Fold:
Amino acid sequence: MTKLQEIASRHELFVNLTLRELRGKYKRSFLGWAWSLLNPLTTMLLYSFVFGFILEIEPETGDPSGLKNFPLYLLCGLLPFNFLAMSLNGGMGSLIGNSNLIKKTYFPREIMVGANTASWLVSFLIEMTLLVVALLIVGNGVLVWLPAVLVLMALQTMFVLGLALALSAAAVYFRDLEHLLGLVLQAWFYSAPIVYPMTLVTEQLSEDSVLLTIYNLNPLTRFVTAYRDFLYSLRWPPVDELLYLVGVSVGALLIGYAIFGRLEGRLAEEL
Amino acid sequence: MSEHPIEVRDVSKRFRLYHERNQSVKAAIMRGGRARYEEFWALDDVSFDVKEGSTFALVGENGSGKSTMLKCLAKILRPDKGTISVEGKLSALLELGAGFHPELSGRENVFLNGSILGLSKRELERRFDEIVEFAGLHRFIDMPVKNYSSGMYVRLGFSVAINVDPDVLLIDEVLAVGDEEFQRKCLERVAELRAAGKTIVVVTHSLMTVRSLCDEAVWLERGRMREWGKADQVADAYLGQVHVDLQAQESAHPRPGMGKVRFVRLELLDASGRPVDQVCTGDSVTFRAHYEATEPVEDPVFSFSVHTPDGVLVSGPNTKEAEISVGKVDGSGVVDLTVPRLLLLLGNYDLSTECTDNTVTHSYDRLQRAFRFDVKPGTPHETYGGLTSLDGRWSVGAEG
Structure:
């Protein structure tokens, strides 16, 4: 039985572990599921106040949608970023936090990481649903674009899962990676056009500068602009950018899984 | 299914001993490379087969690699060399309730833990009542397990693990958990699985378990396989080694005591006075110690003691408490303790003897666990474990 067949045969375990993550996350709290929405909502209000109101950052006007609304503009980038950040944080701790399971029972360990990512994907889906409702209320006809958004979310999930797999196993060997990740995520957040429109960066940099190329190759930049094209502007992103995202996502998953495979052999004894 | 559901071939497992406890990127950068470590082989070229439907024991001292072997069988550890094949559904009782989530209810945890062990939801639903029944937790099943007592926790863990209907069951001495009542239930369930032709591998210290429960055994010593064969033979060989080690320890430390009385040897005699090393429960036997007194000693106290190989004292009679006046001893002689009906049950026992002064504070000489003898089943016929028969009388009938 190959590894993939084995994983497929344990789909019930995957579902149960995902439910465990979700229940564990919200069960003990008074507000329960509302918490998962309170977090992005608060961040959205804060950023809208600081960047939209005080610093007066102008959101782009959606073309062809004609929408111009800072909080919605922000959420199109913030929610995908939150999914990435939460999954990497959670994924990194998923093996260490379940050392008892890993040292005492056997099942394909990648299921553990996958379940963690899946639990954040559920939160992400709920948040995105509410965003879509908000967009519809302000008159943005996003419904026809939803299949494309779902495909984009699938790609991002592959990307995130690849990174989470590599990080989860690496964190067992290097326990201080957790602190590093916090810094990296903070830098990553500002390196992509989430709280500001991309034009503010392109205006500063010349067309052929290396910095701009790096900025553009940042997968998070590409994900955020693609989400915005679909949801905010209601248009297709350039085909080359979409293909780039497909390549990056598949690549991240393959490389991340390969790293995981290299490191997983001695997990039970290193934990 | 093939004749050998478990096949272990040339398996070696290497562990790393790091010089520093926690690995970190910072430390790696400061050091300029990977962590330094020493390696040691926890398992070194071990091969054996387990026959279908048999009960198989892994024995050895602490650190011999037997638990490592079990974890390799359970696929928790991955061997560095060699192959292990296990056919059929496997359930490992390594730690009961591993994977319970404290915030979730007992019910939710049964489903979660069951699916970790490979049971589908439908199967779990079918067995749910049985699992709860076995654990005896009806009233508490919808309570978060963080509010369970440790006994309840373990009971639920065992109940799930044992009810997954495994083809191969791995047990790591965890059965010594819970109260007496629950332990008995566990042993019964294991016996049922044995009877149902399941393959069972146990890691154990108890040679009693090996002899009374197991068909075959492997004896591991510092990662190497010393012996593989019939459980009785392996247990004997293992005991012999422990015995040799004990004697080596003894001879390394010169016998204490003041030396006025020296023991020459210890014997066990059967009813007809022949020296033997094997008797049956219920036999008439005599323990005999030969001594030599180099100078006259007034009123010494002689004692015998019987230990299990694990070091549990079964009995230790002495002449003083028996109010036997020994008088003056001089030259060579013998001390006999005659037991008309030996009530020890199946197993190995070690005999020791000691001679002290009348205050029982100064030892003249002692032979510690110097003679090992074997007790086979006899009458009273009891094979349910334990060290000694109570030799009681039964009567069953209506009250009054």
About this structure: Chain B has a mean pLDDT of 84.
